[in-house]
């Protein structure tokens, strides 16, 4: 399911897209970003010993944490085709909720 939210004037409110993806789609996203985007910042939230920890990582490190089920949330800021984007991925056991915002 994908939803799009935007104001009548795109200059007033950023475009926001929401979707629920499976892990394979997210792995493809990481591939697409590494091949075609200028990734500016990646932040990951992990949980260990019942404590949340945020850290800046590379795109590859974020993908590895996701594959090891250690990432709970990932935020990726990148430039694609002259537009700045921010993808926030909230990892659930059976899907990943993604919110994409043009910034």
UniProtKB/TrEMBL annotation:
Name of protein: Halobacterial output domain-containing protein
Protein's organism: Novipirellula galeiformis
């Amino acid at each position: 399911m994908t939803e799009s939210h935007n104001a009548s004037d795109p200059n007033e409110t950023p475009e926001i897209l929401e979707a629920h993806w499976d892990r394979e789609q997210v792995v493809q996203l990481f591939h697409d970003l590494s091949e075609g985007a200028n990734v500016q910042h990646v932040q990951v939230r992990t949980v260990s010993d019942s404590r949340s920890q945020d850290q800046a990582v590379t795109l590859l490190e974020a993908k590895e944490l996701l594959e090891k089920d250690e990432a709970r949330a990932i935020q990726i800021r990148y430039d694609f085709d002259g537009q700045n984007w921010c993808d926030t991925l909230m990892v659930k056991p059976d899907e990943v909720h993604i919110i994409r915002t043009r910034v």
